Amino acid sequence: MRILITNDDGINAPGLKVLEAIAQDLVGPDGEVWVVAPAFEQSGVAHCISYTHPTMIAQMGERRFAAEGSPADCVLAGLHDVLKDSPPDLILSGVNRGNNSAENALYSGTLGGAMEGALQGIRSIALSQYLGPKTHGLDNPFEASAVHGGDVIRKILAADPDGQSGYRLFYNVNFPPFPAADVVGTVATAQGIRPETSFSVEPHTSPSGRRFLWASGGNQRIGTAEGTDADMNLKGYITVTPMRADLTCHDSLARLKDALT
């Protein structure tokens, strides 16, 4: 088995080391783990690709590369350059520092990497670690993902349907903000939305008098609708949400067709 890993926190991120250990356990002594990760943090870039300028890539070690681009750029580099003659069986993206539940999924570079893998026809999973008061005091804030990650990935792969056509499934996994021993279980959930929570900007003036805007996120302790991803994360569950890159609102098509007739 050959696994390609990327992330959006950068090649030196602690969550990447956690995912490398998970991947190495998955492939065993005869498999291969390859890393192509951003040279610098790329949080919030979603499925961005560097379409108008080239991406520099450098080998940092055995089976380890850093690319000056987004997670999706890294997946493209991994599939069409680094591993062009021996494609991976699986792409893993993460483990992200912070949750990608609810509306966060739409901004996430971690999910962007997994989405690109799915568009390229490769089984792809994004993994993120929800943080909170119960993880702040841990020696390893990624403890829940480190302990439970391998088992969750194996279960997803066992359930991933064969012979997919069109937009391939990819998976959004979020580990709860709890120590590993306090994780209640793993559930399949829909993506939720936190009520009255959204990104905003805060204006600041630099010492030179120039005006800058800093992006600011919403309250991550607000739950989503009962049984959806962030709600279950805050109750101690690992959530797995199957996703596709198809953005069509299929339940609105018939109504819109009637309106346009």
UniProtKB/TrEMBL annotation:
Keyword terms of this UniProt record: Cytoplasm, Hydrolase, Metal-binding, Nucleotide-binding
InterPro entries: SurE, SurE-like_Pase/nucleotidase, SurE-like_sf
Recorded GO CC terms: cytoplasm
EC number(s) given by UniProt: 3.1.3.5
Record-listed a divalent metal cation binding positions: D8, D9, S43, N96
Keyword Metal-binding: yes
GO molecular function: 3'-nucleotidase activity; 5'-nucleotidase activity; exopolyphosphatase activity; metal ion binding; nucleotide binding
Alphabetical list of SUPFAM superfamilies matching this protein: SurE-like
Pfam families: SurE (PF01975)
Residue intervals of the Survival protein SurE-like phosphatase/nucleotidase domain: 3-194
Cofactor: how bound: Binds 1 divalent metal cation per subunit.
Cofactor: a divalent metal cation
Subcellular location per the Swiss-Prot or TrEMBL entry: Cytoplasm
Keyword Ribosomal protein set for record: no
Predominant cellular place of this UniProt entry's protein: cytoplasm
Catalytic activity: a ribonucleoside 5'-phosphate + H2O = a ribonucleoside + phosphate
Role summary: Nucleotidase that shows phosphatase activity on nucleoside 5'-monophosphates.
Family statement drawn from the similarity comment of this UniProt entry: Belongs to the SurE nucleotidase family.
Protein name, entry field: 5'-nucleotidase SurE
Gene: surE
